[in-house]
Queue: 3 jobs
Job 1
Amino acid sequence: MEFNNNIPIYIQVMEKIKQDIVTGKLKPGERMLSSRDFSARLGINFNTVARVYKEMEAEEILFTRRGLGTFITETSERIDRLRYEMARKQIDTFIKGMMQIGYTKEDMIRFIEMENNYKEGNE
Amino acid sequence: MNKLELLRLEHLNKKYYNKTALDNVSLTLEKGRIYGLLGPNGSGKTTLMKVIAGLHKQTSGEAYLENEPLSYKTKGNISYMPTENFLYDSFKVSDAVKFYSDMYADFKQENAYALLKEINVDTEFRISKLSSGLIGKLKVALALSRDVELYMLDEPLNGVDVLSRDTIMDLITRSCNENKTMIISTHLVSEIEKILDSVIFLKDGKIELFGDSEELRTAHGMSVEGIYKEVFRNV
């Protein structure tokens, strides 16, 4: 994994794990690497991964079983909500960007429909 | 005293004749963290390490390791790697390991051999025949094979090729744990910042900035290197 030093490393690692969960690369209930092994694999500091696990536990995406390790939530509602949260973020960025270049919400909807028809027509 | 505290410096000053090398340095370092000691050449990084290692005596001020004033007793609990190549040219790598083993009771020989194997240093080679990358890796592996609480590596990435730098950073991150603390001096900030928990910016012997790397990135919206450039631009 390549890091952008301008953004806190723990945030980048959290984003990556979240992405891997919603795309199914990491499965519900799967055991995460220990923070020591994970940090060695990523070439980052052990405390950074410990922080990632702690933050994601607070978000109830990960949970820890004493002496057994850290696992991905088994609650599918939480994963659905995670996907929704990530989609919201994408949409927010999209809308902000489009507004900056002068599109109204109606324009955006028309644009997406047009784009859709165009793609369907080409398939 | 905070129970995570490892090293506490209070108003350290070091003067060489009329030159001030350390100017009122106060710091508290905690266990289990990797600290970057950052600053351009001549900012006092090596002097600070040498005072902590007990090789230089401060002109004034106090320093404590685990709440004990620095002395010959605390000195044994610090592994210091100077920036120069201090290994004899005529030594074989295995002689260097034996040398460390004889010098330090806390030196873990098996550990050293395991690391050397991992980083592809042939123990039959003579020091004089090693590339600077291999010497860099060897020095770090030896320093990290001591079992102590505080490791201080002075410019471990200097004069070392890119791949060896990665290996050295890997050795450092893997050797750090809850009970071991690292201080790493460097001016190659961008390469090493992702492994640093906290950074100490030293400018003309003074602490210019001290903080958690992630918090600094959040607060400034840029990399530690970016902040470093801003702080030291006019030096």
Note: The interface with chain A takes residues 32-34, 166, 169-170, 173-174, 176-177, 190, 193-197, 213-214, 217-218, 221-226 of chain B (CB under 8 Å).
Job 2
Amino acid sequence: MADLSIDFCGIRSPNPFWLASAPPTNTGGQVQRAFDAGWGGAVWKTLGNPIVNVSSRFGGIDYGTAKLMGLNNIELITDRPLDVNLKEIYETKKKYPKHTLVVSLMVETKEEWREIIRKSEDAGADALELNFGCPHGMCERGMGSAVGNEPKVLEEITRWVMEYAKVPVIVKLTPNIGDIAEPAEAALRGGAPALSLINTVKSLMGVDLDRMVPLPRVGGASTNGGYCGPAVKPIALHLMGQLTRHPQVGKMAISGIGGISTWRDAAEFIALGATSVQVCTAVMHHGYRIVEDMIDGLSNFLDSKGMRSVAELRGRATGAYKEWGELDLDYTVKAVIDADSCIGCQLCYVACMDGAHQCIHIPGRTQEQSLAAGHTHVPDAIPMLRVQAPDGFPNRFVPFVDEKECIGCNLCALVCPVAGCITMKEVPGPLGRPETWNDRVANGTDLVPGGLDATAAARPPR
Amino acid sequence: MSESRLPPGRLEQKIRDHKPLYTEAEAFAEANRCLYCVDAPCISACPTGIDIPTFIRKISTGNVKGSAKTILDANILGYSCARVCPVEVLCAGACVYHAWDRPPIQIGRLQRFSTETALKEDADALYKQKPATGKRIACIGAGPASLAAAGWLALEGHKVVIYERKSFAGGLNTAGIAPYKMLADDSVNEIDWIRSLGAIEIVTGAEIGPSGSVTPARLVSEYDAVFLGLGLGDDTRMNVHGEDGPGVFGATALIERIKLDPTLSLDGVRRALVVGGGNTAIDAAHELALLGVRDVAMVYRRTSDVMSGYAHEMEYAKRHGVQIIENRVPTYVVRGDGGKLVALRAALAKDGKPVPGTEIELACDLVAIAIGQSKAGKIALEFQGVRVDGDGRVVVDAATGRTGHPKVWAGGDCVNGGKEVVNAVQEAKIAVRSIREALRG
């Protein structure tokens, strides 16, 4: 069995699965139950001067019957007195010495930072996470993402913290920014050894069309909140990937956050360079119990890949995140539909017709019918393969991919409801050797015919 | 839809709905299972060609009124069809989920959700009739075919008068549907909605015939068009000794009384026999079982694998206790004191015919005969130029529904020999298109 334990800035954690600073880490009782369930660490709900909250606080977005594709909240930092939180942190750490307990902090002045850092360390915090990411409420008061948005301010506060802190410091970044490298570099300059990202994305969850008020609704109004959950995972992977491949920032320890719900999501973040991962929405949806499968699944995955530890997985995919200009233009794939598992829904057909390159054909049509349907090229022969089905089922035929016209876009495979029915097959490319756009630019062969006269005229002669 | 005006205490009211109206949450969940197939096979499998994936998608987006409109545009009796269609062998039977070995979409229940919700909340807003044309059309028979034709013709601005022999409208939709699928009240409510669509008058108790209250000659001369939605006639008789008398019913007559007659009682009926192997036989047997008759058996002259009734209906009836006695043909009704029904004598059947000397007596308190219904072609023949085929079915041009008389169209059971409500609606739709063209001149 693979070793799931990690070393995050010198802190040993039994596994890379941490709870993010959020409602699931609001109290000692919660965090202790989470540790009992198997979570390797937890980042305590952000401490600061207590605030007041509104009702309601959360908004969800579903896709069909799949609930909580995304979640947003307009809840602020902890609303409980500081001494109550500190006492529970102390008790929790004492009871669970081997688990990682990070305390998230958000205050304003240098003196406040000094006091809260001392109190948190006295309570037993293994590390401190600076909440420079919260994009709602607190940012209006000059904290949270207001700091994350201003690299200079971020750097300065990080310096204050580094001056006082004895335990490792993690700077939590907001995604609500043009270039994620700027705050990350500022944190590095400020002396922080670690980053976590992403915090939530600024969002309005919808509009109540009967009351004409955005969601989540607080009486007759709403406000922008922080968006999280499975829908933000691709955004988080991108922003984190930007940093893990960064020559300097990439050397910092990074805790990946954003839509992680399963061991597979976690493995993807780790493969892109995360040392630990943090989870919130999936726990708010399904409870702490999901960590059992996360541990079991990641362990089985590592075993199946012959990796002995999480560390062996870390960063495996980082190098393959490249610029567009570095991609091989000669790489070619074609869609292949498995006739045995096709159910005849023809969703691949309509997606290709209207959303792609009109290269999937319905068998049994005449040339005229195919042209009338919108095909511009009709292959000579289309095999009449019947959909495998019980007796009595009407005749349906397996759609046919015209390989000559297929540009390998993946869309048909993405819309097919039957997992594995449509696959993308690698075929030899037209050049027979790899060539990138950057190669073409370097060779001066990057002018694609059919463009503007002015563009062609402006090019230096070869 | 409004409250029913039918009398209380009817036996059918004791039978519970086997597929109750979906809640909004249930409909949403089921609608979201639909894959929204392209050129979906369910559409081809629907005789009226309802755009099923579209109406289901509209449920999933919360556009229930639009969903109902998508259904009703293709099938104006989309509500009752949702309740009574054998979806297992039509739309749902063609669902691509079968190819995946997963349960098909519950299309009937979704269709009921849309239409029932819309008829409750938006009944008046679904359609707006066109200005009156001054044209008048007579529909003969008030069953599904005529009601569908009347609804669509009324929306065109035509005046429609429906003449019905019986005392109620709706034909088998009111008097023949298994109560666990739909009660008579729901048919009556749907008819009220159809009537609300325009100038539709329903004349019940009308005797059509050369000597009746309404003569074919008068209809043809007074109306711009005539639509024959005659349905089928009375239950076929067995023609055996003792058939006439208490305890022996024609199956459709019995079902009509279960649905509409509060005076019918099954008290004391412990053993019932239903003769036949079609869907009416299954329905009658199933209803008797559901109404508490302890022993219900169908007596069929062949083996159950060749029964004309739907296999899924037979399985369902069996689950409620209905048994089948195969390869037997009734030869004699045994009566005791005062003509009281005692037993049915039945012979072994070879190729559907009785073998002499093989009779046994099957004790019973009730017999329902479900071996077919007579054809109503006789009335049709009163219209000059209208022909019926060797099976008594009215002959029409399939593309137009027009008979040999240029002003007379026909559709429904009297043309197809006895099919589903949905077939009657489609035939009415075809006839309405042709009538519309003809009246435009």
Note: Chain A has 16 helices and 20 strands.
Job 3
Amino acid sequence: MTSLIGNVKDLIRKWNPRRNGVPFSALYREFQNILDRNSRVLELMADLNDKMNGEYIFDRTYIHTSCKQLTDQVFNLISELRILGRETHLELFIAFDRIQREIQEELSGQQAIQGEVLTWSLEEMSRDTEDEVGAKNANLGEARNLLGLLTPDGFAITAKAYREFIKHNGLDEFISRRLSDIPENDDKALARTAREIHERIMSAKAPKALSKALRRACRRLARRRGIKPQDLVLAVRSSALAEDYETSFAGQYKTILNVQPEGLFEAYREVVASAYHPSGLGYRLKRYPEQPQAIMAVGVQTLVEASVSGAVVSLDPTDPAMETMLVSATWGPGASLVEARQEPDHYRLTRWPPFQVILSQIADKAVRLKISPGQAVTWADNPPERRTIPCLDAAQLEQLARAALQVERYYKRPQEIEWAFDQEGRLVILQIRPSSKPLPPMDFEQIERASLGAQAIFSGKGMVAQRGVASGKVFLLQTEEDMERFPFGAILVTRSTSPRLARLMPRAQGIITDVGSPTGHMAAIAREFRVPTLVNTGVATGLLKDGQEVTLDAVHRVVYQGRIKELARFEMTEEDVFEDSQEYRLLQRVMKKITPLNLIDPEARNFTPSGCKTLHDISRYIHETAVGDIIDMSRSQRLSHGTFSRQLKTNLPLGLTIVDINGGCIVDAGPIVEPSDLCCIPLLDLLEGMEKSELWTTEPISVGFGTLLSSFTQTASANAAAVRGAGRNLAVISKEYLNLSLRLGYHYTMVDTYLSGNIKDNYIFLRFLGGVADMRLRSRRARFVADVLERFDFRIEIHGDLVVGRLKKFPEDKMREKMRLLGALIAYARQLDARMDSDSRRDWYLQDFLEKINHLMEVQDERHDQQHPVG
Amino acid sequence: MSATTNNTPSAKRQVLILDDEPIVCKRLKPAFQRAGYEVETFTEGQAALARVEEKKFDLIVTDLKMEGLDGLQFLGRVKEVNPKTDFIVITGFATLETAKESFRKGAYDFLAKPFKLSDLMDIVRRLERERLGGGTS
């Protein structure tokens, strides 16, 4: 990769673009190339993003080829920028090189840094770290970090630590040799070997690095809890790398309670050794003959002072109707240990709110585990009055049921969860694993009967943002205040997508919207939480009633009347969960290096090549830089051969420089032009939208407290800024083409469009960005702009306060209508952010704007009908 | 609205899926099951070919470019064994040429990877309508 940088340096030395006499039109062609390529880069990113919703079948080859295409395009984009004579692009190559290497590392499956660490703290754990921390740790990490459930604080001892430990003690070769010596079907030899290996592990020594890492991890954990390390009381649990070991041998791998830091290594060793129980070993020899060694990561948690503990199975496969979940509970901690000695309380609950208790079997619970720090775990008698009363009340059962369903919905499998209520009455999740009792496979006829018998409220509408099936009661969200009332397990139905709905995701079973984009920000969040989501249905809020029970099939795009449990269950019986597939997770990881946008505001300090963290950042940086350069060059004397850079005189303070590359102005136009001198159709329509909508000067202040004074000062400052930034406003035009870079105050708008009688060539690409107000208000304005554009057929992406819109292949008259709309929108939105202090305001402004331009568009339509009687 | 026709025949329709990327098989399998099919999946061409020799399939969904066996050869061979078997070709290396060649060899339809699951199932439904009668074509 150093050679790449070297080559680039050579190229730069040889290349000197700022030669005198290069005609502007030639440079402009290069500029156009950059724009074209930039659009292609954005298209490729959007394509990749589309694959995340589960609707597409893609494979590893696709991810590799797409990443290759994308990195090639970005590389060429950087190379093309040099035509404009940028000196900073070596830094861009360096940023590119770094990002590309990170993507390559993901693609080749080597995450260099991850694999070197001996312990991991819980807050860093997710499914992506499973290869290091094991399945159970990874699950617990996601429950805490993503689903927001309470778990004990702690850390993982990694797979790397296991390998070091085994190697340090010379056990690697010993274990493989002994395992390969076991004759087939010789259970006695197997048991003997298992015992032998178990003993060797139990007497193994800790590598120095591991002891050090354990001490450090304990110190950090103690610091977080505000206690001394020696006062830590820990639980040590297995977290094997292959999940099926855990499910098939639930309970065989050891969990050790009441461990203190000085005894941590001994406990670790014991958990590792517990993998060499004869039946577990026998299973592994059969299932994984080439790798029967159990790579064991371990979870270390602070011990919860449990008042009651137990387990919940989110779906009982023995219930023929498949409608219930099971809870078992016992006084005090260590339910799994206690249950081996005495019967716990059993409860059976329905699987949907309000989680009705169908059955409760209250046992006589004579004893409980007693854990005192520094002493062996002992049994204690429960007080007589507590022996036969239920361990859990209705509220606690409901809390458990919710958590279980939340986890189940996320993993799309029935789950077994170990839990405790601590002394403060908080629910703590101790361990999560997929249910060891698999669901019986679904009969196709069953599903068929269920879905044929069901009444579809609507079907074939909308776009899938996250695939999946969900049942629940409709909650029609109309105002922001409604969010507070959103009940657990409901289906969220609302008019438009919005990132603010993220707050409801942990509680929502499914989401349906009237408008919105599957590539938008909310869609991305829905995918994080795996909430089945169907957007842009057009009809949801009209057809669905508040409180109505429905089933959302966001696979086949159908919404059914009533709860069709077979559909949801079918999803849980699918052999593989798409979201857990290697391919999906790989795509998810590489996308983190590709799409997030960190370079937002061109005035910000990080708007530099070295600030680029993703390919999107690089493309945005290049675009912004290229526009600035072309403006400068159009002004400079030596580049004006054969081209006139002209000033446009309009009634609005646009400060617009016009560069005509081909027939955009009348032949004898002078250095100052008026709109009547222009022949550029898209620009004329845009200007018309700006002026004739009368929105530039119309103050949309009839709600709230927008006083005359404040709007006056805002206007004044915006205009002052417009004067300051006047030099940046540029329209490169031909008769059919417009590339407009507009900075009004602190708002940046870029429109690139081609508009002709040839429908296939027509497109609009635009970016809206920025504003004086704080980021929250600015993003609200961005959402307003996006709302408007979506209504007018644009495909939208929102990144913070940046809105990217695309539209292709509309007939000429429709395209002209869109240009007028854009003109009006630019005029209306340029200082709106300062006023949009709530989301309901945003809706008000949307209505206001639509009303105002409605009138404008109608008038225009008539005019057009006269001009173009035939389409 | 649902992924099948209303007049489900008593015997399930048989589909074989061949793609050397396991993820494709894994994801297509439940979709076809949901559409009422008995599904067998293969990631190796030779094994699939051996299976085709012993069992009749109504439909085969196959990739074109795989290690060890060319999808078009596979298509040709199966058409010899059972001319009535329908083919849908899915490929990540879609060109006009491969598409034309697939149709010439008798493929029912052709899809470029990545594709939308619903697009594939639309093709399958159209095929069913034609084969089970009552359809227009």
Note: Residues 2-111+592-623 of chain A form one domain.
